[in-house]
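thread: overnight batch results

M.L. [08:02]
morning all. the overnight job finished for the chain we discussed friday. pasting input first so we're all looking at the same thing
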Amino acid sequence: MATRTRSSAKAPRPAKTSLAKADLLEMYRLMLLSRRIDDKEIQLKRQNKIFFQISGAGHEAILVAAGKALRPTYDWFYPYYRDRALCLALGMTPTEMFLSGVGAADDPNSGGRQMPSHWGHKALNIVSQSSPTGTQFLQAVGCAEAWLRAENPVDDDLVYCSCGDGTTSEGEFWEALNSASNLKLPVLFLIEDNKYAISVPIEVQTAGGSVSKLVSTFPDLLVAEVDGCDPIASHEAIVRAAEWCRQRKGPALVHAHVTRPYSHSLSDDEVLYKPTREREEEAKRDPVTSFPKRLIADGVATEGEIDAIKAQVEEEVQVAADMALSSPQPKAETALLWVYSPDVDPTSEQFDTEDDPHFIGEPTTMVDLLNGCMKDEMARDPRILVFGQDVADVSRDQYLKDVKGKGGVFKVTWGLQRQFGSDRVYNSPLAEANIVGRAIGLATRGLKPVVEIQFFDYIWPAYHQLRNELATMRWRSSNAFAAPVVVRVTYGGYLKGGSVYHSQTGAVVFTSVPGLRVICPATALDANGLLRTAIRCDDPVLFLEHKHLYRQTYNKAPNPGPNFMIPFGKAKVVREGTHLTVITYGAVLQRALVAAKQLEEQGVSVEVIDLRSLSPVDWETIEGSVRKTNKVIVAYEDSLSWGYGAEIAARLADQCFPWLDAPVKRVASTDTFVGYAPDLEDFILPQVEGLARAMRELHAF
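M.L. [08:03]
and the structure it wrote out:
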């Protein structure tokens, strides 16, 4: 059961402290500095010199205490937008904060790419923060998990992760607590409870009105409740929580009661929902006004010393603001930088060994060659971790000698745990966001997660992490942080019985996301070479594996050796032709080849291109084929309308119009879901007959 301590926020008793006078004065200076930066930003926003403002007012005491108790550049930090005072205490400068406010090129948080108060600072281990609330929790857990998985882990570092009380309503908060407690990870969760999530009060957000009560039964979780407006009590609580984490006793949660004297942001007006009496009561606890009075009353400081700090802060803020306002904006064309790695290009010749395979053994299936690739890569690179639902041979190590092992529902990861150990191959909870979020945190620490989402149909809980976090990490941090995660996922129909929830495709949802590579092999050999490229590249990759193709005899190949790679963005002309071109991928490829063979018997020569890489796309090969045949079919397993092929068709019309002798034709699934009954499935999905009919019609145009 969790260890729990409490300190009432309603009637705080001044805590005694061993902090020296210099420490206490510095804490006050940082609290005041944070508040005055907020005030200056508010002024600048009203002058239209900055474009957004959200403050940390009322939260300063607990945050300065945390900054003083923790170790910048050693510990890791996942703050949220109210953590200005923490970032100042860790070493971020007022100038750097104003650079963010004005969107300057030299802004270390994001280079002008994100809103102000979206903290990120590579040198201080402050990991780039995004706008969605709660997404940082699972990443913080993954970052802390690096302590378990790294070859040479740091002995007593910890990961700080904060949020407001409203964010504890997010499911990922509870997933993170579950995994952190289950693995006894050194994560210090700080809940800054100002009793409101924008305008929604705590009693609407949280059952019983106290998140610390709700989490009190998590095993190995230290829970401490404290008056977050008292910097001394806050420092004591954070020190205790940090020590718990550093001793590897488990995670800790500090529930700090704070105030919010300003509105949620300048887009909000709290007088619309907070009565005057409530605001007046909160003002009595404001740490920026109450703490200096306490220092004077306790004889720690004189009024003159407090006034000197105020004057110093005012001057520092003005100088910092002036410097930021005179700093240049990013050059417009830099917007195109850092969507992908500037250093490792998976489309380059460095990744092209396709023409030099070193075949070993007899032809085998896609499952076997995917498995062989992972074994080769894990032997080559000790940073690689494989995890997901059911991917291990067995979760209970003591059973390894007694059972054959599972290795995934399709056996793609079978034997990896037995060969490389349970620290590198392990099962996760049944929670897709948990898998991807933890992988992002691990990748941020330099590890290489190759994770599995068991079915594409269930990837959607992870979409938040994939779209808003994984794909944006490098761009939003101006290349300060990266998360080169490989997400393997099975997809597709043609299963006889897959039905609505085991037959989904939907690649277009991911190919539309900048920063994410999307790969889809149709043969065993391509799967091996493309997965190796995915693992060795420095970008996040969604690797689509069609269930129907896993064990087909027609796509078998021998093992091509441990250095066989196919670059991204390199399509393959699988069948040469002169009358028309079929552009396709995945399981539709084989059906297109069968249909093309039928057309050949009728005197029609069909060229078939396997895209292999859905993002990026090999437009050079496509255009070359279109210029030759002048007629095109785009065939894909997505629904016809708004599907992946629509973008291919639109770009063909835009770039290849002079060479087209007929409209671009599409063959795809019906605009429905996939049915269970075999006759329904056959009607819904693209079949040989439909492809052949489309080829005849286009040829006759």
